[in-house]
Design a protein that fits this description.
By secondary structure, the chain is of the alpha+beta class. The chain has a single domain, classed as CBS-domain (Roll), CATH 3.10.580.10. Helix content is 45%, strand content 19%. It has a 3-stranded mixed beta sheet with strand order 1-2-3. Strands 4-5 form a two-stranded antiparallel ribbon. Helix 2 links the parallel strand 1 and strand 2. It is elongated, with a radius of gyration of 21 Å. The relative contact order is 0.17.
Length: 150
């Protein structure tokens, strides 16, 4: 399974903010849409990633207040990215190693979507459930051998 398979099922809805947008506006967008991340774009290019982790870190640094800072002050300026062709097992490994919950999917310099740890877990579960169902059907239809008939 590839990242493209997850995006095909999930869809490619993207929520973006600019790096110069007030952080409080980005947080409001994330809360209103019930999303855990927003892609930071500037001049059509990926500039960073803002997730609830960066927001919490900013709150901690600022004594519990967001303050009057821009998204750039809190975002991850060098997020880990994958491509549509990246194998799902590689994505799982990268997410676990880097503690990444959200990954922008890049096709060249174009943002194709964002996948989350939840998206990956759901895709793997669905794939395993399908394989289990097929194996059970195969075993149920297993032809009898001569020894079994005797």
């Amino acid at each position: 399974m590839k990242v493209a398979d997850i995006l095909r099922v999930k869809g490619t809805a993207l929520y973006t903010v600019t790096p110069d947008a007030p952080l409080k506006d980005a947080v409001n967008l994330m809360a209103e849409l019930d999303i855990g991340s927003a892609v930071v774009m500037e001049f059509g290019e990926l500039t960073g990633m803002l997730t609830f982790r960066e927001v919490i870190n900013r709150l901690h640094q600022n004594g519990g207040a967001i303050g009057d800072v821009t998204t750039r002050a809190a975002m991850d300026p060098a997020p880990l990215t994958v491509t549509s062709d990246t194998d799902i097992m590689e994505v799982r490994r990268l997410m676990l190693e880097r503690h990444a919950r959200y990954l922008p999917v890049m096709d060249g310099r174009t943002l194709a979507g964002v996948i989350s740890f939840y998206d990956v877990a759901r895709a793997v579960l669905e794939e395993q459930s399908f394989e289990n169902k097929m194996l059970k059907a195969y075993i149920r239809d297993w032809p009898e051998t001569e020894e079994a008939r005797s």
